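Below is our example:
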Amino acid sequence: MPLDQDRSIDANALNHTAKVQNRFVKPGSIMEKLMDFATSVPDFRRTDKGNIRHRLADIIMLMILGRISGHAERADIIEFGRLNLNKFRKMGMLKNGVPSEPTLSRIENGINDCAMADRMQEFSEKYRGKLLSECGIGETICIDGKAQRGTVQDNGRNPDIVSAYSYNTGIVLATEACREKSNEITAVPLLLDKIDISGKTITADAMSMQKDIIDIIRRNRGEFLIELKANQRSLRYGVEDCIKGLTPAYTYTAGPELGHGRIETRTYRIYDGLEIIADKQKWGGNMTIVEYESHTVIKSTGVCTSEKRLYVSSLPIDTPSLGHLVRSHWSIESMHWGLDVNLKQDSIKRKTPRAARNLDTIQRIAFSVFSIWKGLRKKRSDKKKGVAELMRHVSMNFTRLLRFLSQK
């Protein structure tokens, strides 16, 4: 019989195939925390009846480790499990072999997606405080949505998932799925209620420039920096007209900097919103206006481009990091790009929004693992490595991956 189906025993029975209980699952290691996450996800199956061949936690760990190893599709993950079945068994997993592709499909469609996302939040919180203490600076939380382009709902739209991403730690703190007939405006307040934002700075795009969202941030003693666009028409054009004749309170320039084949110079102009914003009571008090202007030269062609953006913030005008906060928000877009490039999120098709969100949760955990490892490392050379570089480094060999995850 095939190696992955050479026995059929109770899924919850003790695994006697492992003579040495794995050296890779060390107390306090990333692997142990991942296994705690997998075990905490509620099992939707009727485990008291039927033929349950595989523990739910084993299947979840297979999906996580497979994707950390660079395998995106179900068939690739199954092949990855077969090639490394002996190592899985030494960790006390997959004692009945590797689950089939239909089993993985049923699991993704059956798991309560909200419960699984909440367990991911608990996993992130185990590292959030420790990683922040290593940074030694205030936390910036970036809020943004991402469409699941591999899934189409009955209304023809892609399901959208809004996430809270910690710029300082590089991990996803929490997610919230937009309802089928709604959008980010209703999902962001629910997301903010899930996390502690007291003393934190929230950055977001123009979709979040809503009175209810601003009120929640202020009420929870947080700060914000949000892009201002034409969805708040009167505020946007009123600010734009006023600052034309004003001298900024502060002006500073960053660059020129060379990166990705471009030479970029960024200028920030800071204005006090006291006399600029007419209806400031609607927004809970005075706000600071940040005008961002960039000039970019493509090095290979010499083509020049420029753009201007406006932001509003609750932070004082003399805050030295306002320009840095503008740049910080782009980190969540970079993370979304990494989900697509490294984990093939947009190209993977799922039939239901629930399966799409469960896939998203697994992928975000896989992505966060590398940021956690970087944050816990002491060597500067390790901290400078990008997620894509780390994934290429560890995914070439499963033993190397397990050694990678065994670190505390």
In short: The two ends are 39 Å apart (CA to CA). The CA atoms of residues 291 and 389 lie 35 Å apart. The first helix runs from residue 30 to 40.
